[in-house]
Amino acid sequence: MTGSTTCSHAQNGSPTARVIQSGFTLVELLVVVSIITLLISILLPSVGKARKSAQRVVCASNQRQIAAAVASYIASNDDWMNPVEDWWPLGDGRVEVTFRVILFPYVGSVPQIFDCPSERVYKYADGFSNADERRAIALGGPSTADRENWDRLFGIVHPLERWNFGGIGIAGVHWFRKNPPDLLTRKKTMPFGRAVESGYYEGLKKYAEIKAPTRLIWFGDGAGDDTLAKWGSDNGWWIRSPASDYSQGDPGFNRVLQNDYGCRRHSNKANYVFADGHVELLDANRIPCNEDQCWWSILPYVHRPRTVAVWKEPL
Ligand SMILES: [Zn+2]
Fold first, then answer.
1. Of the four, 12, 136, 223, 243, which is 20 to 30 A from 172 by CA?
2. What is the pLDDT of the chain when averaged over all its residues?
């Protein structure tokens, strides 16, 4: 009986019950909502900023680890630096692989180290992704029928590894494939060449050949997803020019002028790791490639005319 009495009391609408039922007026609710909206608008950009700066830091860390991997490679290969690409035996034949496969054991077999976390489409760690596949087919590469063979990517040489477009880029700006017109002045450009015996004039280099390790870029943010169909088959993972003039060793290479998205990856700048292992966040416009110095070349003064007296470098 006591319970029913209480119930009827409340239903009769005592002053106390009415106050509880209308705890918030419409105006108060609107104020609360607008404050929450304001807080979100203040917090969201800083959350975005925090995410971006975390990506930049992880990218720099990955590049440091790749540089450490190169150092380990050098230590166990008589001072020779790794090739940018190489032919590896597979079955009865051979396949062309990039530096990632070559350095893979030296990064603790962790494929994510070869990626900048800000890249969304072309991630090396994704293996041969759908985006890669579409692009490779557009370039006349492997067909979808080959997909069944794409399960041996990491640690084991994969026949299609070179078609993976993602990843942190290796420095190979002044690259030439054929006999350059002036061997003496143009041979020592790329830090990571290819064996002359296999037909490449930009040969392999020893670490001791680097004149200024603090001013030689080894790796940087790769071009990634903005380079569609523009750079041919070697793309995000290779920092170089699609134009033949710079590839033939002329000064003036600038990723901004090349409209290379990779150089704007981190707030209009990009990370670069140098041959001494330090990382810098750089505006591509401020990377020298002129007659005084070139941060892309083994010889810092590689573009200097041969008439200059300092040029005594033997082959
Ligand atoms: Zn240069």
1. 136
2. 78
**3-state secondary structure at position 106:** helix
Cβ 300 vs Cβ 294: under 8 Å: yes
Q: Which two tokens mark 252?
A: 């003036």
Distance from Cα 60 to the centre of ligand 1, integer Å: 23
Q: List, for residues 241-270, the tens digit of each pLDDT value.
A: 766 666 667 788 999 888 888 899 999 999
The rounded Å distance from CA 143 to ligand 1 centre is 37
- In the chain, the number of structural domains is 1
The model's confidence at residue 117, banded by pLDDT at 50, 70 and 90, is very high
Digit-coded pLDDT (tens) for 64-81: 999 999 999 999 999 999
Length of the chain: 315
CA of 256 to the centre of ligand 1 (A): 14
Rg of the Cα trace of the chain?
28
Q: What pLDDT sits at residue 267?
A: 93
**Other residues' Cβ atoms within 10 Å of the Cβ of residue 70:** 26
CB count, 10 Å around CB of 20? Answer: 8
Cα 258 to ligand 1 centroid, rounded to whole Å = 14
What is the extent of the structural domain holding 73? 53-286
Rounded CA separation 206/73 (Å): 11
Residue 137: per-residue pLDDT: 67
Spacing, Cα 173 to ligand 1 middle (Å)? 7
Distance 97 CA to ligand 1 centre (A): 26
- Distance (Å) from CA 219 to ligand 1 centroid: 15
CA of 224 to the centre of ligand 1 (A): 22
Q: Quick check: is 205 in a domain?
A: yes
Residue 14 lies in a domain: no
